[in-house]
Amino acid sequence: MTWNAVSEFREEAGGLVPYVWVNGTLRPVGWAPLPGSQVAFLAMVETIGLFQGPRAGCGKSEALVADFLQDVGVLGAEHKGLLIRRTYPELEDIKSVAAKIIPRVFQSANYNETTSTWTFGNGATLKFRPFLDASEWDRFHGRNVTWVGIDELATYKTLEPMQMLLSILRSSHPLARPRLRACTNTWGAGRDAILEY
Description:
This protein is α/β, with parallel strands linked by helices. Helices cover 26% and strands 26% of the residues.
């Protein structure tokens, strides 16, 4: 999936609907990236990517979810995503963002609250999991995922959890482009570790 940037928003049915240019026609869509930083983040080809910005307003979390969605129609059931934060309560914000975007883009996607997992019509999955620190690595070791997302990377004191997660980023699918994406605001316990990296 490739994303066309938002050209304009229109108020419809009590909400704002993004419109994008598709083959010379301005059309409504379920979600589209804002020109600039969201478009740049979604276009990255590097294995590791970071979207850093202010606490609110630039759409870091939306872009993080959208980055996973790019390969839902490409890899089928081979596309397995893992979206993490330090604790379950911290996952609530990103789960809300996903619940707003995913049904608009993939109407057949289903969310299982018990397992905190989105399952798509072609078998792709996006799981939300807490990962407090390196002491919890055994819960992740040995998995195979094509995509890892870390929301609020600077809440980690070190980048050790991120580096550990890189080891489960793999796929034998010929079209897979395994990647780790993170977003964070400009302040947190791991700010200096991120800057050094």
